[in-house]
Amino acid sequence: MSIILDKVNHIYSPGTAYEIQALKDVNLKIEDGQFIGIIGHTGSGKSTLIQHLNGLMKATSGAIYFHGKDIYDEDFDLRELRNRVGLVFQYPEHQLFETTIFDDVCFGPKNQGLSKEEAGLRAFEALRNVGMPEELYYQSPFDLSGGQKRRVAIAGVLAMKPEVLILDEPTAGLDPAGRDEILDLVARMHRERGITVILVSHSMEDVAKYVQRIVVMNRGSVMYDGTPKEVFRHYKELEAVGLAAPQVTYLMNELKAYGLKVDTDATTIAEARASLLEALTGIDSQKNDFHR
Amino acid sequence: MLRDITLGQYYPADSVIHKLDPRVKLFATMLYIVSLFCFKGIAALLVISLFLFAVIRISKVPFKFMVKGLKAIMILMLITALFNLFLTPGEPVVSFWIFKITAEGAKNAVLMVIRLVYLILGTSIMTLTTTPNQLTDGLEKALMPLSKIGVPVHAIAMMMSIALRFIPILIEETDKIMKAQMARGADFESGNLVQKVKNMIPLLVPLFVSAFRRADDLAMAMEARCYNGGEGRTKMKPLHYENRDRAAYLIIVGYLVVVLLCRRFLPFPM
Asked: What is the ipTM of this complex?
């Protein structure tokens, strides 16, 4: 039991001509240790949703429970919630402000009330985790490349050692190598530390490759919620709301239409390869440990 | 949060006032302000009130949006009223300790408050029914004659519209950075003044960086589209007067004449 959303609604600028309902009766249960992907078209309420999870935005109606406690309770400590639910915004490199990279990463831990030494240790660990070369630690964050800045900003949240890590499109604007680095880092954090990870993404391939569960948002409500295989079975419905399934799903569906006995549930290239080999040669590559 | 602050506060609606040429609205607002400061007598006040509320009705903007602007000047109104009430010389009506209230003072106080309220209501009709872009467009065209004597009217109008366009962008940016830093445990509320100013650094540095980046990008984008000042530049939607604009000019001038006539012939009881 980690985070539970109960009929959460959010309306922007209520009572004016600009009124928009961004979230509509959202019910979600986010279990500890899950790796969840949130997908949805632009303006579907993804960003609004994740900002509710650490109390940055207040729901117009509905309730959110963190470990069984109502976060809108008078005596609930929202800062404590933000310490435990780390949120990496879109383009997080725009929030860097300190004179050195190291100081910037220390900002979060220091706000948690840690001593200078402890904060420093945390920063050190986080920067090493994101793979920053040590000779850069005392340089200005503004001199870095875009990908490096992004990693420093993510380190800034990791250094707070959150139980739940939420990332809003962490790979937007990065090259393929930078994208893989960030996602592998997140997957490693999930594996090694057992933290809950929520990944907002537009890339179906990324989501299919990394997450255990997908939540599809459409016009402010949850459209689908399930494993990647379950969700991508609805690829036609996903297309209707401006989304898509991974390329592999299309390929497998087309091959099946041509009469090949392949598994249309395959969502990653590795799965597709195994299923194709099996269909073509009759060898179950996964059972024979037939990798790459 | 910050999203709710509306500067320029345009309220979209489909009304005659919305459709009027911005130059008409600028001119009308000016004459309206003149009328507020030179009217005399209860008759004129009635005319002004009638005119004001008629325009508010026609504009189809809910009255509560107009009143929003009044909250901001509450303190100013209070101070003005008190100063007028106590510091106007004349025959004291009520007096206690060092304070005395004169008949003139009471009258002035009431008048000043009415003037201020009407001023805000009247001018907010303009800002609520005109987009900032229309406003600068109107201003540019109205001031064009000044360019003959070397006033860079186009440049001023362009700067104004860019500045206005950037206000919501920067507000949104501030909101975003604030949230990002709050997610990292920043605290913008508690602490004494020095502490508060210090706490603003994580907000202000990224904001400045982003403002300069945006300015750079905009300059580049304008150059890429061959922008080189107002010389020979045409408009997509050039302003031109319609019949309703001419009628509006007549009405507003007629209104001022009526107010002035009231001042001349019915200047009581004030």
From this structure: 0.84
